[in-house]
Design a protein that fits this description.
Elements lengths: L1 H7 L19 H16 L12 H12 L4 E2 H8 L10 H11 L15 E4 L4 E4 L3 H8 L9 E5 L12 E6 L1 H5 L6 E4 L2 E8 L3 E6 L19 H14 L8 H9 L3 H18 L8 E7 L2 H11 L5 E6 L4 H17 L6 E4 L4 E5 L7 H6 L6 H8 L4 H13 L14 H15 L6 H14 L2 H13 L3 E7 L9 H11 L15 H7 L15
Parallel strand pairs: 4-8, 9-13
Antiparallel strand pairs: 1-3, 2-3, 4-5, 6-7, 7-8, 9-10, 10-12, 11-12
Helix pairs in contact: 2-8, 3-5, 3-15, 9-10, 12-14, 15-16, 15-17
Length: 532
């Protein structure tokens, strides 16, 4: 909602003008979310903001920048940092861990990334950055993670009297550039371009008047919707489910949710198709639908194309948002493997969880859900999180902010695949140190920023009390709400390149270390205490 308000607020800048915006929905679930977003924008129901507290990766960068200019007494440096809001409650132990990392405490693993960056004088209790500290900050300082993009630069077309000459007009993803050759044409924005040069840093193009062969694609991260926005959608489905046959419903949607007549009719029809496909009530805030997709004929067709033993698909229509569904998927995977089952694939998005299971009978999804309870959540997440691609990706970003993965020359672009390899090597090397500060920071980022564990704990308790009804349905093909579930697996196989092997997953830091890490600004334990 805040993103929509920010974009709409960019319009109508003339004196006396009114800011206006139009939401364009591309598919059924998109239309559902757009309708609820439009209502929330009108009601100014923006999401809650939770400032980041005590980020250890940025702390390493700040210490390097401060000590690169002058020698500091360690206690005075700590006191100076605690005058800021972000580090006002910084535990001294975490400060010492970052200082020790920069001083070379972990250099025994013989990685260049862990070489000493500062010099400590324990007799004088002082710290001073080494000669390489400031150049490191200049080359790689900042908080925005490196996405490995190529600069797109426009040259003046041959024979043209005017036009851009070397100006930067955008960015292109690595994957798109790898598949291109000099002479290829593509469309970007409102113009067509022809590639005349590709180097290690940029793609140079000239305007092109002929036909184009492709439109660029961008591999963006999937945004995890928060529980509050997701609950708004789920409660709306609970209200609309018994009224899909009411002729007054489309008109109410038009009036209350700012939908055009065609959009309102399309939304009602989309919900009707979902109800018809599953033969029951829509999934909503107090109804969890478990969909077993693929009948006998569909399963036989899948075997013919994928070979014997191909997995079957079970879809949990949770509608709780990615910040709840993602940790739930990790916990379910841990619960399955704890019972001795072979590793299974579980993918999550904002609307559902998709389980790819061995094609065997006897699987009871209700029993698996019952294995994930509030007391078990800590052990299940500790078992699964550090071996996930999400953890490895956030570790890579944190290591970059801590200047552990710097580029040698700021004028040269570093391929993202190379940064991934360096990050995997670093994570595997430091996993035997449970107090490595960047691993701790990655745990904090996942548990506090990526996940909404209090909300997950709440829905698990509602399931145990029976406040959320569970029903099951069998479909020959995924229902409309699950139509995009196939992309979850495809995207994971094609793009999930950060996951580490078993050696990189050591179960996470000690509970007492996590307890200190997740302290709130009030000096008390946060809502994540139940994890420990």
């Amino acid at each position: 909602v805040s993103s929509a308000l920010q974009r709409i607020g960019r319009s109508g800048h003339a004196v006396g003008a009114v800011s206006r915006g139009t939401l364009f929905a591309l598919h059924g679930l998109d239309l559902l979310q757009a309708a609820l977003t439009a209502r929330a924008v009108a009601d100014l129901e923006i999401e809650e903001v939770h400032p980041v507290r005590n980020p250890l990766d940025l702390l390493a960068q700040i210490i390097l920048s401060m000590t690169g200019l002058e020698r500091w007494d360690l206690q005075e440096l700590y006191n100076a940092l605690r005058t800021t809001v972000a580090y006002h409650e910084l535990p001294r132990r975490h400060f010492d861990l970052v200082v020790e990392m920069l001083a070379g405490r972990y250099a025994e693993v013989r990685l260049r990334e862990l070489e000493p960056r500062v010099s400590l004088d324990l007799l004088e209790n002082t710290i001073r950055g080494r000669r390489s500290a400031l150049p490191l900050v200049y080359r790689a300082g900042g908080t925005i993670p490196d996405r490995g993009v190529y600069e797109l630069r426009a040259l003046r077309a041959p024979g043209a009297a005017d036009g851009p000459a070397g100006g930067r007009i955008g960015e292109l993803d690595e994957e798109f550039v790898w598949e291109r050759r000099v002479g290829d044409t593509f469309n970007l924005g409102t113009k067509n371009w022809k590639i005349v040069r590709i180097d290690a840093r940029s793609v140079e193009v000239i305007p092109w008047d002929g036909p184009v062969t492709i439109t660029p694609f961008w591999r963006a991260e999937r945004p995890n919707r928060d529980f509050r926005s997701s609950e708004r959608i789920a409660l709306a489905l609970e209200r609309w489910s018994p009224r899909l046959g009411d002729p007054a419903l489309p008109g109410e949607l038009q009036q209350r949710h700012s939908l055009e007549e065609q959009a309102a009719a399309a939304l009602v029809e989309f919900l009707r198709r979902q109800r018809t496909a599953t033969g029951g009530e829509l999934p909503h805030r107090h109804h969890l639908l478990i969909e077993h997709t693929g009948g006998a004929s569909a399963r036989a067709s899948a075997r013919a194309s994928a070979g014997p033993g191909s997995p079957r698909r079970v879809i949990l229509h949770t509608l709780w948002g990615g910040q709840v569904n993602q940790p739930l998927a990790l916990a379910l995977r841990g619960a399955w493997e704890r019972e001795g089952g072979a590793p299974i694939e579980i993918e999550a998005d904002n609307e559902c969880l998709m389980l790819l299971l061995p094609d065997t009978e006897g699987f009871d999804p209700r029993r698996l859900l019952g294995r994930v309870s509030t007391p078990d959540l800590e052990g299940l997440l500790r078992q699964s999180l550090q071996a996930s691609g999400l953890f490895a990706a956030r570790f890579r970003e944190s290591a970059g902010r801590a200047l552990l993965l710097p580029r040698s020359d700021p004028r040269r672009r570093v391929p993202l695949w190379l940064t991934r390899l360096r990050s995997k090597r670093l994570l595997e090397a430091v996993s035997r140190f449970p107090d490595f500060p960047i691993v701790l920071e990655t745990w904090r980022a996942c548990l506090e920023e990526e996940f909404d564990l209090p909300a997950l704990r709440g829905v698990l308790e509602e399931l145990q009390r029976g406040e959320i009804r569970i029903s099951e349905a069998r479909t020959a093909s995924p229902s409309p709400f699950a139509a995009n579930s196939g992309w979850l697996q495809s995207n994971q196989l094609v793009y999930e390149q950060d996951a580490v092997g078993p050696r990189g997953a050591r179960g996470g830091p000690a509970p007492e270390t996590l307890r200190e890490l997740l302290q709130s600004a009030r000096g008390e334990l946060s809502d994540l205490e139940h994890l420990l």
